[in-house]
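Re: that chain you flagged

S.,

Sorry for the slow reply, it's been a week of failed gels. I finally had a moment to sit down with the sequence you sent. For the record, here it is as I used it:
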Amino acid sequence: MSLCLGFRKSDRAVFIYQQSRMKDVRATTFFLSTSFLMLLSAEATAQPATTKFTSMRSPASYSSASRAVPHSPDEISFRLNEEGVKLILKGNRAAGQQRIEQALEYNPRNTTALYNLAGLYLTNGAPEKAVEVMSRAVDITPDDLAFLNRLAEAHFAASNLRGAISTYEKIVSEDPEFEKSYPRLGALYGMVQEWDLAEKALRKALEQSPNDARTISNLASVLVVQKKYHEAIRLIDDLDSSDVNADILTTKGVAYEGMGKKQAALEQFE
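Prediction finished late last night. Pasting the structure tokens below so you have them in one place:
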């Protein structure tokens, strides 16, 4: 799960990327065979966030009426958040975070600053604080999918898989294609061994991206767990040869083993 930790600059409609130290959900091979059981695990890898530009909804704290008042708490909070983002972009993260925290002292409902602060907590390895901060932002603006997405990321980083699942469920109910939420949701269902839900979510993901090798690999693994061996093998055989790796071959081997085809299984394991 590639997790984007962009910063929001109010009224600039831009996410600014920073290097992420987040865990990347890779739903590695998980399967059931006649001789052993392997469960889904998450592989921790650092992934750079991608640069993303999007229209930003005007936060309540930055209404034109509020910002029209010189030196008002809302205006000061707005300015401090902007200054904080600029400092972070220049490489001065500590000073930037201090400005963003000051912005929230002037206006605790500054959701843009809450979003940015949560991103900093995530990159600093403090996911529990990110959950607390993003929960506040979501309470203020419950329909902002970007806020929900960051909250889901924070839950996952804090090892709260159920929290991440419930948040992604809210996202896909509003926008099934938002930020590749279905592949993430499918992987998370697998991590808590809810195989039927994992299969359904990954099939949705495959409808959106029919050639996505990771989704195909994860779905094949889920099918093997459910002893749907033939279907798993068909999926794997449809992969481009350049996308086939050791994990996928292992999944295929276990599918053959489950079908009682020992020699075919051994060929995959080799």
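What I noticed first: The mean pLDDT is 79.

Talk soon,
D.
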